[in-house]
Amino acid sequence: MKQLLLIRHAKAEIAIHGVKDIERVLTSEGIRSALKTGILIKEKELSIQQLISSSSKRTLMTLS
Question: pTM of the entire structure?
Answer without folding.
Answer: 0.85
